[in-house]
Structures are given as C-alpha cells and as structure tokens.
Specification:
Layout lengths: L1 E6 L8 H15 L3 E6 L12 E2 L2 E4 L11 H21 L3 E5 L2 H14 L3 E5 L3 H7 L8 H16 L2 E4 L2 H9 L7 E3 L17 H7 L9 E8 L6 H14 L3 E8 L3 H9 L7 E5 L6 H5 L4 E4 L5 H5 L4 H7 L3 E5 L2 H4 L9 E3 L4 H12 L5 H15 L2 H4 L3 H11 L1
Parallel strand pairs: 1-2, 1-5, 2-4, 5-6, 6-7, 7-8, 9-10, 9-12, 10-11, 12-13, 13-14
Antiparallel strand pairs: 3-4
Length: 403
C-alpha cells in the first residue's frame, strides 16, 4: 500500500507535530508500506527544506505571496490543492492521509474526489481552539465560528476521521459526526529513542547554575514551547511557596515561544528569581541532557477547551524517560495520567495547589522508583507507536475495499 500524508510542516523542523508525523511514517514503513509526505506552503516559513529528512521522503509546496487573512488562507488552500494534483499524478498513492489543520483537508477533499482516492482526515487539535490557545483569536468570535463550521464540514466530508484522543472524538460526535466514522490514534512514544535515562549531566548542571550534588538537587522542569495555555506563569508563581516547603527546589525552563519575554519578566520580579533558570531553546539531540537534570516534569496547563480536549505528547516522553510527572487536572492530562499511579494531578490555574503537589512529591522520594516503573510500563503497553500505528491498517483496508 502506498500512503501519501498531507501535512502542515515536517522535519527537519522540530515540533510536537513533526515528531508525531515522524513516528507514524517510520512505523508504517516498518509495516512494509510505502509512505511519503506533502507539506503545505507554510513549511517555507522555516527556511529551505530538503526533499528527504531522517530517511523520510517529502514533497514540498511553494510559498504563496504574503497577503492579509483570510485571503492568505484561501491562496494556501489553492496552492496545496494544485501541488497535491501534481504529486498524485507523479507518485500515484493508494491512500490520502490528511493531517490538521483544516486548511489541508479543504485543499485535499476535491482533489481526492477527482482522483477517486480515499481520504482520512486526522485531527490533532481543532484549529479554532488552537487559535484561542495561541492568543490569536477568542472563543465565539466570527472567525472562530467560521473555522469551527469548516472543521465540522471537513470531518463530515472525509471518508474517515482519526483523532488523537477521546476528547476530540466526543466533541465531533456532539457535532453530528457518526461515531463509527471516527477512530482514535493516541499520541505515543518511539521507544527506540528512549532507553535507560542517562545519569545527571553534572557539567551541564554547573553551566546552568544548578546544584550538582544529588542530595542537594530538587529540580522541577518544563521542556517545550512557551504558549499561554501551558500555564508556565502559574509554575513561576508557585516557586516562592515551593521554596518555603522545599528550600533546595529549583525551576529549569527549557524552550521558547510567544510568552518568553513575559515569563522572564515575571521570574525576574519573583522572590524566587535566583532559583529560576531559563535555558533557552536547545537542539533536539541535546534535550536528553536536560531531562537528566530534572526530577519532576511539570505541565501546569490552564483549563480551557483546547487543554480539556487535546492530549499533549510531552508527558508521555517524560514517562518514557522514567521521569516523574506532575500535571494540571484537565481533560487532556486525565487521558494520560492516573493520579497517584503514573503521575500527580493538581487543580489547574492554582499556584498554591501546584506548589503543594510538588512539595509532596519531593517528600516521597521512597515511592519514586515504583512510580517511574509503573509509568514506563504504561507507555510501553498502551502508548508505544509501533502498536498505535497498527490501528490504521484495518481502516485503510476498509476504505480500499469500499473504493
């Protein structure tokens, strides 16, 4: 079977989106299928992109001339549709697998019908909610309602729909999409990339100004993108109370994003300023060194539609690294974390509760080895990409038989 994945962006860009894509394509190749990706015009925002990355083949779409929204989006849809026509004629896929955002689905639907190809639309997050989470729109606006209607139209028009979690599936069913048309392909981890965690990198700890003695170090960490919905302002706000309970505590923030300047200003004004370290963005092949310094990975996402419906990838990677996980009690986290078993859940938007949860975890070091083993076993059993991707096989075969 030859499968063409239609994508917003791909490797060599590093993001949660591209890592999920990489995992899917690699696992499908391992199943004996031929796969390739086609990226949309926005890939060009990240610079020149080769046709091959990490052993994977990608077709590219040329950038469109910059214009204001919404004309820009419609031009992007048209450009991707034309390029998809060309790629289908050249590569002759048996199956189109289109990944969100909805712009990709709108570009591919007509082309798929014209070529009589089955189309699976995979939704990783609703575009309207992602815009609210990124601070570029507000819930209930005219743009929000139009985008929501387009998302519903695309799901209804596709031959099948894949989503990454039960929250998205439930929301689509409420919109009138048939439940038997939707499959759940949850986020997972490529366990070939996560073996035994390395020992703490003491040289890096010294470079960052972290304590190097194991007995003196109590490091809370976040490794990812600095978006408002991640709740990192609550994590910084929790630090004075955490230090009052655990004087050795230190916060390490690795990454960057739209909230970076505001978070640095908040940290500089905090009484805990000398215990908050911003490491900046780091190359992906260096991330494991930073994981090695963190005792507890914290994910204090705020309570909103995006975080209630969508499961993140980072907590699973932390569990695979045998790191302790503390996360806000929102729907996306509850699908991944069993409180007190594979991680700790605390009330969202509540810095004192966050501080208390972290302090309690540091006070229970005797229970850490068991919790790490249980969390790692959960990932191996239920969130391993090699088994997750096998869920697509019966769907593809069903659609091929229908065709």
């Amino acid at each position: 079977m030859r499968i063409l994945h239609v994508l917003d962006h791909s490797l060599p860009v590093h993001s949660g989106y591209t890592f999920r894509t990489r995992a899917i394509l690699k696992a499908q190749i391992g199943m004996g299928w031929e796969v390739a990706g086609l990226t949309g015009p926005r890939q060009s925002l990240f610079g020149d992109s080769p046709a091959e990355a990490d052993g994977l083949r990608f077709f590219r779409t040329a950038a469109v001339a910059p214009v204001r929204s919404p004309l820009r989006e419609w031009r992007e849809i048209a450009a991707l549709g034309r390029r998809l026509d060309e790629v289908i004629a050249e590569w002759r896929p048996d199956q189109l697998h289109v990944h969100s955002p909805v712009l990709n689905a709108l570009a591919a639907l007509r082309v798929a019908r014209r070529h009589k190809l089955p189309l699976v639309y995979e939704i990783r997050a609703f575009w309207e909610d992602a815009a609210v989470g990124n601070g570029t729109d507000r819930e209930g606006s005219a743009r929000y309602r139009v985008t929501r209607a387009l998302e519903t139209h695309a799901a209804r028009s596709a031959d099948a729909v894949a989503v990454i979690c039960e929250g998205l599936r439930g929301d689509l069913v409420k919109r009138g999409i048939a439940a038997d048309k939707i499959m759940v392909s949850p986020n997972g981890v490529d366990l070939h990339m996560f073996g035994d965690p390395p020992p703490p990198d003491t040289a890096l700890a010294a470079e960052l100004g972290l304590p190097t003695g194991a007995d003196a170090r109590e490091v809370v960490g976040f490794i990812g993108s600095y978006y408002d919905y991640e709740g990192l302002d609550d994590l910084i706000a929790a630090m004075p109370a955490l230090l009052a309970a655990r004087p050795a505590a230190h916060l390490l923030l690795v990454g960057g994003g739209p909230m970076e300047a505001a978070l640095k200003a908040q940290a500089a004004a905090s009484p805990a300023a000398d215990r908050i370290t911003f490491a900046g963005r780091v190359p992906h092949d260096q991330v494991e060194r930073y994981y090695s310094l963190v005792d507890i990975l914290a994910y204090p996402r705020k309570a909103m539609r995006l975080t209630e419906l969508v499961t993140p990838l980072k907590p699973l990677e932390a569990m695979a690294q045998r790191r302790l996980v503390a996360a806000s009690d929102v729907g996306g986290h509850r699908e991944l974390i069993e409180d007190g078993v594979t991680g700790t859940l605390f009330p969202p938007d509540d810095p004192p509760a966050l501080a208390a949860a972290l302090a309690a975890m540091f006070a229970d070091r005797a229970g850490w080895p068991h919790r790490r083993d249980v969390a790692r076993s959960f990932v191996e059993r239920d969130r391993n990409w090699s088994s997750n991707v096998s869920r697509y096989a019966p769907l593809y075969l069903k659609l091929a038989g229908r065709g």
